[in-house]
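Late entry, written up from scratch paper. The run itself happened at the end of the previous shift, but nothing got recorded in the book at the time, so transcribing now.
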Amino acid sequence: MQPVLTELELLLAAFVERDLGGALVVACDDVEALHVAEILAHLDERSESDVFLTFAARARTAAAFVDAVAESVALQQAELAQQLGTDAVLPDLPALTRAVAAPPVQRMRALVEHVLGLLPSGDHRLVWSLLPADLPPDFSVELAEPLLRTVLDAHVRLVLRDDRTAPQVFESAQSWPDEHVLAYSLDLSLTDAAAAAVAIARDPDAPAGAKIQALMELAHLDLGHGRHRDAEHKFRGCAQFYAWTHDDPMEALALAGVAEVQRADGDLPTARATYEAALLKAAATQAFPVTLQIVIALADTCFALEALADAEGYYRLADAIADKLLRPHIRADVQESIGECRLAQGAEAEAARIWIGAAELCRALDYPKRRQSVLRRLAACRATICPEEQDADARVREAEPC
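Output as recorded:
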């Protein structure tokens, strides 16, 4: 798996940094799309001047996906201004972006141009990635194909997802007549990934870093197949290597792997201690995605141990980090858990307020699965919350689409 992901990261980095604007179509399945988003997040961390915006909402149609993108942009404008270091008052989204009757491609182009207008003068590239978690059936015809034919600003780098098993726009991108449009097919089938990881780990000529990364992948495979002792042994070996090379983020991830094994064995107190050791390593770096992953796992472990105040504190930390990283879907997930902590500590009214805010966030993000879960929790405690919050709860439900 790692050689393929390394190849993809190099391609994405070169695509972003080249002087030529344009689009890259990545054919992949739903899980592989997560890897694409993760690599883009890594590139975002390394870039000091470029702006990366990735949209992965679930939607039934291309138009609904554009709705979700518009809502996400509206929510992220304040964070974007902070990221760019500007105190300017941001303009409202153009009316065209909300015009339901307009073609999806026109609305999306208006959103891109709106965000471009927020960038300060200089060599700032905008990496605009459309990676729907579930591809709408009309995504290629209504949005992706027309975007490829659209002439965008030279500062824009457009990343579009297609379905690897039934490609549509990918085939057009492959045969595109000029170099503005590129195509890449990502295939991370489990069998090939495991075989590649084993081959690298056993290759005496492979660099030490590549061998250890392959060992980490094999450790996760062992854990997934219930081979806990093998997984723990590999994770600990990786942690020792990364400690020796002073790679704190990777050492933190390896320690988190050890903690995952301990959780799977049911040893929650030890898992908590290991997660805390991993968090200390990650927190000393700028690897915020790694820190976020560990904090959420630590919060879940504390909640399972009924250490509710500690769990709530870690969930609130995760909420703050997700806000900084522009990960609103993770914020919605975490806010549901914060409400659970409040409820378990007897603060029903406060839990309801938190869930009302989370439900409204989910509606703005078009995140129906989490929204339904939050609304079920609200319904369960509705009898104990004050009338004012019941009214707010009712308003949330009235806004819910049929």
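Residues 62-84 form the longest helix (23 residues).
(Scratch paper discarded after transcription.)
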